[in-house]
Amino acid sequence: MKAKEYLHQAYRLDQRINSDIEEIERLRAMATSVSSPNWDEKVSHSRNTNAPFVRCLERIMDLENKINAEVDRLVNLKEQVREVIEKVSNTDEQMVLRYRYIHNLTWEQIGDELNADKSTVRRWHGNALNHVVLPEKPITI
Hints:
- The chain is mainly alpha-helical.
- The protein has one domain (3-33, 51-131).
- Helices cover 70% and strands 0% of the residues.
- The protein has 5 helices and no strands.
- The longest helix is centred in the middle third of the chain and has 35 residues, at 52-86.
- The two termini are 12 Å apart.
- The model has no long low-confidence stretch (mean pLDDT 87).
- It holds the Pfam family DUF1492.
- Keywords: Coiled coil.
């Protein structure tokens, strides 16, 4: 695994968590909505006797458990990423990595924070990636 791939994992995991949270919100809306009765005649030998909202609530609970586990992994990963970034000796390079991979800022936002143009920020980023030393046991998602 290359340095950039390793550092970028936190961003992807954060996106996954946000996507799961959005799905929970949709499920909560479905669980609280009133569905219309179905007048079609259906014959089923293994009829589900649970109300439709119960399936939504079960799915919500499963997703909440998944999100909690992912948040724990994200916290551990970001802690390890911070340690890796702190080992980069150049302060500008360190700050670019921190803003990019911990705070998920764009190149323009990083430039604004560091009072540098986008090309300088990208140059610092490239140099920083060459100075990153991956941990012996990197956390992977």
